[in-house]
């Protein structure tokens, strides 16, 4: 059941409530507010489950003092976490699952009289137009190359399977509502079961069928054309379809030698016999942490546990745990038999044609990431010509050229994808694999692993025969090799020519009327003060920040920032610097993921400022009007309503140095935010946020907001004490620590701070060890102790500086001495 978010006051970077003028009611729908009991009990871990929800306090808002070291909030923060019995580790692909790794294997060939012909479909016909399918498998000019790869997607059995997928979604929603109703009991079992793939079935329908296709041309003077052209394709639901490339190479050679259906059957049985049952299933936060980290043994404990479960199940046949040495039973991490060398990839073997083919499957999967592509290759393709001989964009477009005619081409591409423009990648005289990889890279670029709706409307390879169907798809992303597409400007909005490395904006692109958001900033150019946008940028640079803060960008003040209100130029500079310094593909993907994360938070603040409420923010209205902070005289936290917390704790959203800086950056990004608000990816993201909030362990606080305050603002001892104590009190269980670590990874990551990919990591939390108040130091020490014992947190702890570790040891010694005196 959905409710409409009522109008509420905005919260600035310092956490204080401020009323905005000319705000209008939002008509966006939100999930039920039945989770309030969970949100308002984030300090009530030891409370009686039967305790009813407290009513908001009527205390005055005159004095906001932090809790003293002996206050009840401090005691709550130091309660040891209540550990529960370890649940069995679930497999991502259980051995007894009925789902096949590969659903179909196809073979097509080119006949000089009949054209493209489908020869075999195993184990049965895929359905649909066989001629069109064969044409997709045999791209244009394929006879000019000995080998080529293509990728395309099938929307197979959408109507037949929609009912089944809808049933799964209803079941998950029911389960999520049940977890939300019982959230006050602090049981995080449901969150542990939540996988980001559980909600990959977007509002557009069931998952796609991904098709990896290999085309080979062999010279044969006995045939009319002088060559034999055949293609073999694998159809799978797995987005990591690139792992099948070695198998396709072997299988197509086998098929040339033995063109029989048995060859397809052997391949089908071999790939579906691949054992992935020892790959653990990671939840949303664990996948995010793994992607943000370069540690090769991260979550190795899960691999050890699932192997131990398998050994226990096999019993005496394979050797029970009793046959293991006592040392290995006490310290399973010392046993490395069968463990992956890198936990980012699960290694398996497929035996085909008497050849053991090693396979590596990514453990953490991102949304909209299909196949094996390179963002670095895409960026350098269009950045090199722009940097050597820049050509201004003509015409310009408010959604695309957000930094004027000289906007970087990658930013133009990113804006085009976010605002759902028609994008075509043209690769004249290039293999179709080149344009297909560019399309897949572009989808991942705009998604950032967060936004969805790109791959479902992407066509990695298409041709002129399908142009009528292509033009019916709004906001498509297509790859072509025919130069005729470049001359038809009415077919596309942005053309990316891979051959030349240049981008063009169509002179027939539509420009909509000014929106409310753009009009708002045009009518209030200097609001909320007389400080201009450029002056705001200079002020940020003067204190050592950049608008790309948190994106791995350069934090050293530069003169170029004064002419870069959006921060895009600084961001692209950091990207190109990272590429030149060989930071690697994962580092570049992480930077764009953080850019997208920041963009969504800017969009949320934009909607709040202009429209009064945001569909990108799910926040309990009762938490937006704090009455009074906790004080040394406050009652036990179990009886303290969350609405009585200090305003700096209840803030939400992106953090700026001041309202002036907020206005300057939102004004600079207004056009592309408004362009994004009516797209598929926007509505999918709103839907995903609903699910995210339902499964989020810490609902009452915006941990990202609080951590950003500690990282960006100069806070007084009282304000910082309240923030530290609130975080320490809220983060107790394993899943809450996962959420905090994911927040740290997404908010403070910097490629310059080490190969672990965690950047400054726990640095800003560890600063609480030097707080002037003893209670804060002890609370932070307790939190860091819990993180230190966490399976992922130990890696963050290992990246912490020695100075902070010594401070933690001193705080722990002080706590122990105090406990001994009490005894």
From TrEMBL:
Residues 9-33 have a biased composition (Low complexity). InterPro entries: Actin_polarity_regulatory (IPR052809), Afi1_N (IPR012860), Tripartite_DENN (IPR037516). Residues 34-72 have a biased composition (Polar residues). Residues 80-90 have a biased composition (Basic residues). One of its GO terms (biological process) is actin cortical patch localization. Residues 188-202 have a biased composition (Acidic residues). Residues 1-94, 163-205 are annotated as: Disordered. GO terms for cellular component: plasma membrane. Residues 103-608 form the UDENN domain. PANTHER family: ARF3-INTERACTING PROTEIN 1. This is UDENN domain-containing protein. It comes from Cryoendolithus antarcticus.
